[in-house]
Amino acid sequence: MIAYEGREPTSYAVHVKRYNSNNDEPEGANTYVNLLTQICWPSVTTLSNDLFVVVFTRYAAGGAIEVDGQVFDVSGNAVGSQFQINTMSTNQQIKPRVAAYENQFMVTWQSNLQEEDILAYSWGVYGQLFFLV
Which stretches of the chain score pLDDT less than 70? Predict the structure, then answer.
């Protein structure tokens, strides 16, 4: 399974393409994850219960860049709503990565100016663990 960003006629889109167990033949149609004016850095992982999760960045209010996620079933249908992953809602949160173990997944990302005692330009790596019920 791969996630990639693609340019559509009027915006950017995140797509997911599933492959067979040998990873040599595509299975099914592309899944559109999201269609916004600016999104990038998608990452995808499969979960143990025939679900997969995709994470990506998007522009938010006030010029911030946030990390969002969406869970899908094996047919590419959204399960639940799109959700925000980062806990800080200002500045820039970029380059998310996701990994899974059974029904939980960990998302990491880079965040700019998240700590209060930092210099004017400072990046750190942050993460959050999610459990599916």
Answer: 7-12, 20, 22-23, 26, 28-30, 32, 34-39, 114-121
Q: How far apart are CA 96 and CA 7, in angstroms?
A: 20
62-69 contacts, C-beta under 8 A, 24 or more apart: 62/90, 64/89, 64/90, 64/91, 64/92, 64/93, 65/91, 65/92, 65/93, 65/94, 66/93, 67/93, 67/94, 67/96, 67/107, 67/109, 68/34, 69/98, 69/107, 69/130
Interior/surface letters 48-57, b for 16+ CB within 10 angstroms, e for the rest: eeebbbbbbb
Residue 89 DSSP code: -
